[in-house]
Design goal:
4-stranded parallel β-sheet, alpha/beta
Length: 126
C-alpha cells in the first residue's frame, strides 16, 4: 500500500455498551482486530481512540499470540475510556501489542458528570 492510502491522523470512537450478562468475548476482540487492521495510518500519525471501558482494548494474550498487530507502524496513540482505569498495566501491554512501535502512549479514564437544570449533578457511568 502506498503512502497516498494512509491516513495522517485519526479520531475513532467505538461505541459498545455491554451489560454484565454480555461482556467482551473472543468474537468482540477478533472483530476489533480486523476493524483496526483495515485502517492504515502513516508512521507519524496520531490516533485518538475512545472506548467505553478499558476492557474493550485488553486483547487476550491467546489472540495476541496468533494474530498480527493491527497497527504495526503507528507511533502516537491516545486512548480515552469513560470509566476510571483499573487495569493500566494490562491495557498498556495490549496497546503496545496493537502498535509495537509506539513512541507516545497516552491513556486516560474519566467519569462523566451529567448536570440537570433542576437536580444538580449526578455521576453516571458510561
Amino acid at each position: 500500500m502506498n503512502a497516498q492510502n494512509n491516513v495522517l491522523n485519526g479520531h475513532i470512537i467505538i461505541t459498545e455498551w455491554f451489560t454484565e450478562e454480555h461482556m467482551y468475548d473472543r468474537d468482540w476482540y477478533i472483530d476489533l482486530i480486523i476493524f483496526l487492521s483495515n485502517i492504515n495510518f502513516s508512521y507519524n500519525a496520531t490516533v485518538s481512540l475512545h472506548v467505553c471501558s478499558e476492557e474493550a482494548l485488553i486483547i487476550p494474550e491467546s489472540l495476541r499470540k496468533i494474530c498480527h498487530p493491527p497497527w504495526p507502524i503507528l507511533k502516537h496513540l491516545k486512548v480515552m475510556t469513560f470509566h476510571m482505569l483499573k487495569r493500566k498495566r494490562e491495557l498498556r501491554n495490549s496497546l503496545y501489542w496493537v502498535s509495537p512501535l509506539l513512541e507516545t502512549l497516552i491513556y486516560r479514564g474519566i467519569t462523566m458528570t451529567l448536570v440537570s437544570p433542576t437536580d444538580g449533578a449526578d455521576e453516571i457511568a458510561f
